[in-house]
Write a structure and sequence with these properties.
single chain; five-stranded antiparallel beta sheet; globular
Amino acid sequence: MELFEKAAQSDARILRVDQLMESGADPTPDHGIGYLLTFDVGRILVLPDRKKACLALREVSNAEEVDEIQLFSLSEEEPWWRVVGQSLTRAWPGAHGEGASSSEGDPDEIRLQFRADEENPKVISLHYGDGRVHVQEKENP
């Protein structure tokens, strides 16, 4: 969570979104084995943690860390095309009552708000479900 909170504090702009691809699988933009979000201040990898039934977040400090991973660009897919180039203004845990987290304290859902409240904000949810990361646009907060 801290990675997204830091990005929001610096008004980081999202530049690109990629989905991690499973060998032989077709891309499914709304759920997958992981997502790489590239901001102007860095990259955040979002993965499912099946043991804890939550999301695992990892900072990717250089491109070589993900060179071996097959990625599919989602920058022109729903809901990402709506926010590419926009600033991240808020990030918070959510789900079954805002602030939900696993028994270990890791979030099972993260909501990301792009654009300020008065600028038609877009909220995208990344949440854990059935061993995958699911993505969907939410109603404005």
